[in-house]
Amino acid sequence: MIKEYIKSYKDFPIEGVDFKCTASLCASKKGFARANNAIYQDLLKYMPCDKVIGLDARGFIFASVLCHRTRTPLVLARKQGKLPGNLTTRTFELEYGVATMEIQKDSINRGDRVIIVDDLMATGGTVQAVIDMIYELHATPVAVACAMDLSFLGGSNKVKEQGINFYSAVEYQG
User: Fold this and answer.
1) How far apart are CA 38 and CA 36, in angstroms?
2) Distance CA 86, CA 84 (A)
3) Cα–Cα dist 155/158, whole Å
4) What is the pLDDT of residues 103-136, one digit of tens each?
């Protein structure tokens, strides 16, 4: 079971939040392997795609492992100010504030089928911003994969309602 490798921190980063920490999952050889294997077996092994987008910053970890296993190119969706070049940008609301994500325009081609990978799905703001940028670049988001889904916050349902496949290694329902 993967959940045994995920530590929870009550009242972090603000009071009332039970923070699920992917650092503890990544620090465990068995936990990290199990999470990556679950995502690979459920998603990338069977889903054709042209690119995988890893979300800044912990999404890079899971996305890079999956890209290596499937020999699929990795695209980085970074926080504002971290990428050079011609960028597409989206600002969105987070659980605790506002953020901006950017992707280099030349990293995704017209018609690419794209999978988005992050460490966890919460309310879905970051993923939605990336979905919007993929469409702006005339590509198609075919799936979102996360190590953890905090389904009680609704982000994974928002993805599914758009007709985009959603996968997670672990789900927390509340």
Assistant:
1) 5
2) 7
3) 5
4) 999 999 999 999 999 999 999 999 999 999 999 9
